[in-house]
Amino acid sequence: MISPELCIRCKGKLLCGLSKCPILEKQASHTRIVSSMSGTNFIGASPPGFFVSWQNYPKVAVAPLSALPAEITEMSDLPEKWYGLPQEKIISFRESLLRSYKPMAVSLAAEPNYELMEFQEIAMASNLFEMEVNLAEKPRQESSFDSFSAPLGPSAKLDNVKMIENPKVPKEIDYYVSDTAAKSNTALIELFQKGFPVSTLAKVLSSGALGVKKNRKLVPTRWSITAVDSNISKYFIEEKLPQNKIIDSFELFHSKYLDNDFWVLLMPYPWAFEQVECWLPGGVWNREATQFNILSDHELNTGLKGYPEETEGAYFAARLAVVEHLVDKKSNAAAVIFREIGKDYAVPLGVWQIRENVRAALKEKALEFTNLDLVMDFLSKKLAVPIEQYKKKSALLTHFKEQTRLSQWF
To answer: Predicted confidence band at 96 (pLDDT cuts at 50, 70, 90)?
Structure first.
């Protein structure tokens, strides 16, 4: 039997050695689009949507997303607009999208053929547009779920797609796609500051359309989402936060959505960050467990050391939301995020909900405290798990508590 502790850390990456994740397999759902199709050809629309698989890397499945026009809106692939929607509505959005895929080597992006250039245009588009989809086989009638990206609809091998309407590519994106000397990181930062959402940037990066020409590669969607969150927040941490004023009190923010309960604590110290996650029994990755399981990763003012192995993409999604807030307020602070995941978070919906949950929390009015002990006392009445368990796991709470003790001697 696979231990619940391994499942929580793995989240579908097949660390157990199995060929398929048994938890994700159980979540597969039937979809309307397949039953409504006759044959393997149909006139569909793209929201626009684009997906690249991570399995079999460096040969990956590259998939434009499409659906029957009556089933689709521009929100179907725009998670920044989903906050507050019920889980069933989000799954409904996604299960209507067909992944019509072609296997491609990731290196093809350096010298893309016509077909890949067409796919890249879909990834860059800002409008919903119609296209003719010709499949090489009947789609598999199921949806799949992933801890990084939004739920995915049925899939089928693609023969070809033909544009019926022209995708509209924003001139700012087209500029960086055409600039074959600009690094992808530069493009991501500039485009984000011009207002393009994480989901759009992740699709463009995933399509292999950014970066120095000889280095361009197709990037699996789960990696591109993390890359956008990580690189943009790192830039702001290094270039913006050091010149900002440190806040002068302990600020606590709250948000709860999709049975993910978030408490965001900002502390009057130079930048540091920690994500502490508590998976309660019965949750998607903790279904067979009888007790809670706490994971955490952190960085001090000297930066993140290595990769956040326990919280992974959730770490960078939450970090970006906090850094955005601090930059907007022209502030600097250390942050600890407490995330409790309950049993009603029944299927993994992607790290977008973590980013949007933290963003929503930081839009609320903060509760202010004069010291850390008062914050801990307050949280002890709000969290489902005893606060002492969080203190044992949290590196930053220990670090700043010790720093407070030392300051009393000077």
So the answer is: confident
The reply to whether 179 and 158 lie within a common domain is no
- Only one residue has tokens 């973590």, namely 354
How would you label 63-78 residue by residue, b for 16+ Cβ within 10 Å and e otherwise? bbbbbbeebbeebbbb
Last residue of a domain, one of 146, 163, 180: 163
Could you tell me if 131 and 165 are in contact, meaning their C-beta atoms sit under 8 angstroms apart?
yes
pLDDT at 407 over 50: no
The pTM score is 0.89
**Domain limit, last residue, from 147, 163, 179:** 163
The whole-number pLDDT of residue 289 equals 72
Residues 280 and 195 both lie in one domain: no
What's the gap between Cα 232 and its chain centre? Answer: 13
Same domain, 326 and 361: yes
Q: Which domain holds residue 110?
A: 27-163
pLDDT of residue 329: 98
Domain shared by 207 and 254, yes or no: no
pLDDT digits (tens, 9 = 90+) for 57-74: 999 999 999 886 667 778
Whether residue 112 lies inside any domain: the answer is yes
